[in-house]
Amino acid sequence: MGGQAKSKKGSKAKRKHRGTAHDLSGLSAEDRMKARMQNKAKKKTAGKYSVHQLLEKSEEYLDNFNYEMAQLFCQRALDIEPDNLEILDMMGNICMELGDADKAKQVFLRAVELSPDKGHAKYMCLGQIHCKEESLKYFQKGTDVMIHAFQNQSQALGAASWPEEMEVTTKDISAAFCSIAEIYLTDLCMEEGAGEKCIEAIEKALEYSPNSPEALQLKASYLFSMEQPQEGKEFLLKSLASWLPSMQKSESAVPEQEACQLEVSEVVFPPYESRVTTAKLLIEAEEFQLATEILEALLDEDDEVVQVWYLLGWVCYLQAKAPVEEEEAAALKDSARIHLRKAKKLYGKLRCDDAPLLEHAEQLLAELGGGEDAPEDSDAEEAPLENIDDDFVHSSDDDEAMES
């Protein structure tokens, strides 16, 4: 939560300064250099590349996670062919990666206007951008388009078709129904009939993909919310069984030097936020060891997420309250203090706005004792944010290609 928001805010702040090509006042020397290089690139790309070449360059930068340069080349292609659906789709996704929701919304709505009944992805993205009823409307439309495409392709390709030949798979449709269920479980949970519509969407998701970790976890969340913890725990553990063994194997069984060579596609885990939710549900189900294992793995991926540190402190606190040896309880309380203090420190550093989380962390620290008087853990080993290498990469090869 905190770590991801931080990077998006940084990108958004930089983009504010790009509104005019010549007004560079107020920018740091580094950002002024970036702006000049991008303006120079804009002039050089004009008329030098075909649309196909521009898209190739954009994809090249996307592969290197350089979204700003990818946007530059994609925009040049869009200037040439403003109604090209492929370019609109690419531009919308780049804007989503940059956290520019307004621009992404504008691009995807243009794609909807040009092709309302084909291409489900734009509707799913619009559903992510919007909230409540608007979000639900786009998710439902995207799901309808997806099912229609699936039925048509199944008839055209026949029963012997391979999954990679299909534009839409049963997993895609299941994920779409999960998006609908989440809306009813969160933003629209107080609406009349929300519970019935939520479970209906979850059952549809499981119908299309019975072993979907996301759908199984959503059913667990629904059952916990309906005060059926034992039934919820069963679905939660079934969801975990589909991916946790792979995570454990990748962490322990694979030698470190070999792990670096594994293809990303070989082990697929649920998204980061989904695994945070898994940990919360495990804590609710009093599966403390499993929750701790998942939370520690999340820290290995990103150690600046406030909620993960808070949950680790919370689970240690709960374990210390359980019937354990006095020495073990003392160690668990020490761990709880360390994690909760780290959560508090990051909360201020990242300027989070989750007041209930902060209040509960402070309440736990006060109960644990020593929360205010004990020295804060030192972060001396952490590299300051100012020293993070610049993400902007400008290839001299591109300059040479543009000059030719």
Report the C-alpha radius of gyration, rounded.
Answer: 24 Å
Helices, by number, come to: 20
Based on secondary structure, the structural category is mainly alpha
Total count of strands: 0
Q: SSE string, helix = H, strand = E? A: HHHHHHHHHHHHHHHHHHHH
* Overall average residue pLDDT: 79
The biggest beta sheet reads: none
Strand content: under 5%
Distance between the termini: 45 Å
Task: Summarize the structure in words.
The radius of gyration is 24 Å and the shape is globular. It has 404 residues and is mainly alpha-helical. Helix 7 runs antiparallel to helix 8 (132-157). The chain is built from 20 helices and no strands. Among the domains are: 42-115, Tetratricopeptide repeat domain (Serine Threonine Protein Phosphatase 5, Tetratricopeptide repeat); 128-156 and 163-210; 304-368, no CATH class. The longest helix has 26 residues, at 132-157.
In short:
This protein has about 400 residues and is mainly alpha-helical. The chain has helices spanning about 1-15, 30-45, 50-65, 65-80, 85-100, 100-115, 120-130, 130-155, 170-185, 195-210, 215-225, 230-240, 245-255, 255-260, 270-285, 290-300, 305-320, 325-350, 355-370, 395-404.
